[in-house]
């Protein structure tokens, strides 16, 4: 299998270019953003939270929420863009590889239709993430306020 990948990479400039684009998009931008958040933004927010913690409770809450906001408004949009762009690039890689095998390419889906399908998939993933967040709220709240019996009931019916 690996020798076939090397064969296609050696022969096709399109495959090399799209593979490099996928690597840059996923490796540098997406993982770089996660690493930047985990090793720069979040520690800075934690330091700020410790500095402000003694003075104002509302500021501590604001700082805690800004971590979630950063994930929602930075990481998830990057994931969505990466998801859609990768689909287009993967299709071009597959079409080029199929051309090298000298097989007639299957009629590919138009770009607009593929974009609509991937946008729908991103929205479905967002709804799933929101559902998981909402389902986890009652258990965390119950455990925080010491309602152990209710938490056990929720835990029984909603396994995590």
TrEMBL record:
Recorded superkingdom: Eukaryota
TM regions (residue ranges): 20-41, 73-93
Localization, UniProt: Membrane
Topological category with respect to the lipid bilayer: Multi-pass membrane protein
Keyword Membrane set for record: yes
Entry keywords, A to Z: Membrane, Transmembrane, Transmembrane helix
Name the record gives this protein: Protein EI24 homolog
